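Exercise 7.
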Amino acid sequence: MKKSFLFFIVLLSVPAFAEVNPMFGTDTRNSVNLYIGQGTGSGSLFKLVDPFLWEFEPITILMAQYSQPMEIFRLPSRINLNFVQNFGYKSKHGLSFMAIGISWDVVIVNWNGFYIGFGLGPYMRDSRDYYVDSRLVFGERFFIGKNISNNWHVELFTQHFSNGDFTEINQGFNFTGLAINYSF
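Solution. The predicted structure, written as tokens, is:
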């Protein structure tokens, strides 16, 4: 836990001010992104940043995202419209749902074509399950990205969905995966 805390303190001490938005190419104002991830178990938000806590489960997430660049407190950011399809396998982990949401991602480190950031946003699901007993969930995401070219970017991400303890049942669920982004 101390190592994770120290890691975030170091990240926050190297801000990425928004001269150029690393999540978009030069002179581009839109991007489409495709995310695919594997379930890493239910539980708290801290599972996002500590891979030793991950418990891979038979759950897969696909997310299509449309984004536009923006700034939050002079940091490069993007606003996103997300379409989520989650597939659960086996009866114990039958966690399948569709969702739509909006989110905001902020880059806190931008260095030599690499960037690190986090995001947050509300999502509305089409069903409830035994992990989270509400249709409204919040998604938190951490990501590390790399610019491949002016228009193509890749990101490693971890994402957590939960309802912020609005209901008694709120185990949450987590994913880790890869994203491919095309900006135009």
